[in-house]
């Protein structure tokens, strides 16, 4: 399994901890999955789908290199006020990412930095459904 895949798996494990208690606003009932799915094929809400995107490398002297992996978390909800629920889940995901800059993804390997690049929602055009997307970049040592 590649580092890309292991990092996504580690992120999913952390997102599944969003259970509505403590610092979390919502409970996503462990509905966090790897890959991409379209909102009209989802039956259990809320749902979060996480997928790896593009990656760039930064080559430094001494054969050292950084990997910068873009990851997208797509959030889907269905309820009377979907935008409110999306905002709460996005805030919870941001809380998880902030708390896990150094995320262990393999034995002796961990990420160095997680940076949120963009956050967006459907702005209510799919009501009673709602869709949001949070794109973040994970920096790790290759």
Q: Short description, anyone?
A:
The chain is 22% helix and 43% strand. With 142 residues, it is an alpha+beta fold. The protein has one domain: STM4215-like.
Walk me through what this model shows:
- The protein has 142 residues and is of the alpha+beta class.
- The chain has two helices and six strands.
- The protein has one domain (3-141): STM4215-like, CATH 3.30.2000.30.
- The protein has helices at residues 3-15, 82-99, and strands at 32-34, 47-60, 64-78, 104-106, 109-121, 129-141.
- It has a six-stranded mixed β-sheet.
- The longest helix has 18 residues, at 82-99.
Instruction: Write the H/E string, N to C.
Output: HEEEHEEE
Give the beta-strand count.
6
- Give me the number of helical elements: 2
Arithmetic mean pLDDT: 96
CATH topology: STM4215-like
* CATH class label: Alpha Beta
Uncertain residue ranges: none
């Amino acid at each position: 399994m590649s580092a890309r895949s292991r990092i996504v798996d580690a992120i999913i494990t952390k997102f599944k901890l969003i259970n509505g208690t403590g610092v979390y606003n919502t409970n996503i009932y462990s509905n966090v999955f790897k890959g991409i799915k379209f909102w009209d094929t989802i039956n259990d809400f809320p749902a979060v789908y996480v997928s790896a995107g593009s990656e760039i490398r930064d080559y430094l002297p001494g054969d050292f290199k950084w990997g910068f992996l873009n990851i997208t978390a797509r959030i889907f909800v269905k309820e009377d006020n979907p935008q409110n629920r999306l905002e709460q889940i996005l805030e919870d995901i941001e809380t998880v990412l902030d708390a896990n800059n150094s995320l262990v993804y393999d034995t002796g390997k961990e990420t160095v930095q997680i940076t949120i690049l963009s956050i967006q929602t459907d702005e209510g055009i799919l009501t009673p459904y709602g869709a949001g997307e949070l794109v973040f970049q994970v920096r790790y040592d290759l």
